[in-house]
Design brief:
Radius of gyration: 26 Å
Oligomer: single chain
Shape: globular
Number of helices: 10
Order of helices and strands: HHHHHEHEEEEHHEHEHEEEEEEEEEE
Distance between the termini: 46 Å
Strand content: 15-25%
Largest sheet: 7 strands, mixed
Structural class: alpha+beta
């Protein structure tokens, strides 16, 4: 299991345990509930050990990154970098000198598949992987997506074209028959569709003063902190709102036809969220996605959740729908709604607009990425102020694995999807 998969699996196990704890609502768990809770916790603890082992391995690899030297190799090109600060210092020094004199940088120069002029320097693998890992781990949405590694500028895959669970339409037309069914078997060739990912460029740019250029350790610390935060914000924003041209296609973009838009209540007031909104959104979520689903909200919605109640069947008492963090057995960092985490995200729409609350299984969103980072610099962009422009470039793409909501087998039932948002209330 890859590192990111370990993190996702651990988070899922912890969320499942918290959901059981919240459902108990202060009472003693039943024997069955306690058994499930202990199993989830044991799984999380085992995964934590695997994560810790992977972290130790990464540290060891970082400390023993000596390159393999073969007879006939250029030893100067193979000499490993002692630190990321040394690499950034070499990039800046060679830029200011106007020529590439370090043989390691010369060896790392490369051109892209389509535009040779913007290749830049390949960031050494051990530092590039850390930068990439932080960029995706910091992102609230990105860390929950299904990752796909790309080895070229374009990746084309075939996927089953399924938009209905009716007989003869599941899995793109695959059918199964009981032997006793008295009808002729009719074979159907399953329908497939093409899914294409293009390694779009995400570029981060900053300016370094002459004073900062003299302190390579400070530059390394700045790069390690600021660039992952900015990259993760842009990646999360694209996962939600991306237009799909030169960037990932977001689940809230109209081009992403898989997302279900749940209608508001009849006569519903502006900028409100009702208990019926929540129940209807939950009913539109594809059932197998409930295991991994989370609520993603614009933070202004949070006060609207506290008063929501389930009407009691007798009509004499109400049960709260929302469990705030730190209350009623919910010891997680997030509130719980229908037992699922409620996570505020900056990328959500404004209160009252479509997209201000989303119920989503982000494991059904594919984030395809190149496992490389390129760095480049220039003294010409801000020549008059004596500053140097430092640029980093990631390459990635993303889109929903679904291309349309699913029509259930039950007649006249509403469509379902792993992504559900609430219509505008304005």
């Amino acid at each position: 299991m890859e590192y990111r998969q370990l993190l996702q699996a651990k988070a899922a196990a912890v969320d499942a345990a918290k959901a059981l704890q919240a459902a108990a609502n202060g009472r003693l768990m039943s024997t069955d509930e306690q058994t499930q809770f202990d199993a989830h916790m044991a799984t999380a603890e085992n995964l934590q050990k695997q994560i810790a082992a992977a972290d130790r391995m990464r540290e060891l690899e970082r400390g023993t990154s000596a390159a393999v030297i073969e007879v006939g190799d250029n030893l100067a090109e193979k000499k490993p970098w002692n630190s990321s600060a040394e690499f950034f210092g070499a990039v800046i020094g060679n830029t200011r000198a106007g020529r590439v004199s370090d043989p390691r940088l010369q060896a790392s120069l490369g051109s892209s598949e389509s535009v040779p002029s913007d290749g830049g320097f390949a960031v050494p693998t051990q530092y590039a992987q850390d930068l990439l890992q932080r960029s995706y781990d910091v992102g609230v949405l990105a860390q929950r997506c299904r990752e796909l590694n790309m080895t070229s500028a374009r990746l084309i895959m075939n996927a089953i074209d399924e938009s209905s669970r009716e007989d003869g339409k599941r899995w793109g037309g695959l059918q199964a028959f009981w032997e006793s069914e008295a009808k002729q078997y009719v074979g159907v060739r399953p329908k497939t569709r093409e899914v294409q990912f293009v390694a779009n460029k995400l570029i981060g740019l900053t300016y370094l003063t002459e004073e900062l250029m003299e302190d390579t350790q400070a530059i390394s610390s700045y790069v390690d902190t600021v660039f992952p935060d900015e990259f993760s914000f842009k990646i999360d924003d694209a996962i939600f709102n991306g237009v799909g041209a030169g960037q990932p296609l977001g689940i809230l973009n109209p081009k992403s036809a898989a997302t279900v838009v749940q209608a508001k209540d009849a006569g519903q007031e502006a900028s409100t969220v009702t208990a019926l909104n929540i129940l209807n959104m939950w009913s539109r979520l594809y059932a197998p996605s409930r295991k991994n689903a989370c609520w993603f909200i614009e933070q202004s919605i949070e006060p609207k959740l506290y008063p929501l109640q389930f009407p009691d069947t007798v009509g004499t008492q109400n049960t709260m729908m929302y469990t705030p963090p730190g209350m009623w057995g919910n010891n997680s960092d997030y509130g719980l709604l229908m037992g699922k985490p409620v996570i505020p995200v900056e990328q959500a729409s404004a209160l009252g607009a479509q997209g201000d609350i989303v119920l989503g299984d982000m494991n059904q969103y594919i984030l395809a990425k190149r496992n490389e980072v390129r760095a480049d610099s220039s003294i010409h962009v801000a020549f008059l102020t004596g500053e140097l422009a430092l640029r980093f470039m990631l390459r990635l793409d993303g889109q929903s694995w679904w291309n349309a909501p699913l029509t259930p087998k039950a007649k006249n039932a509403p469509t379902r999807s792993p992504f559900v948002t609430l219509a505008a209330r304005s």
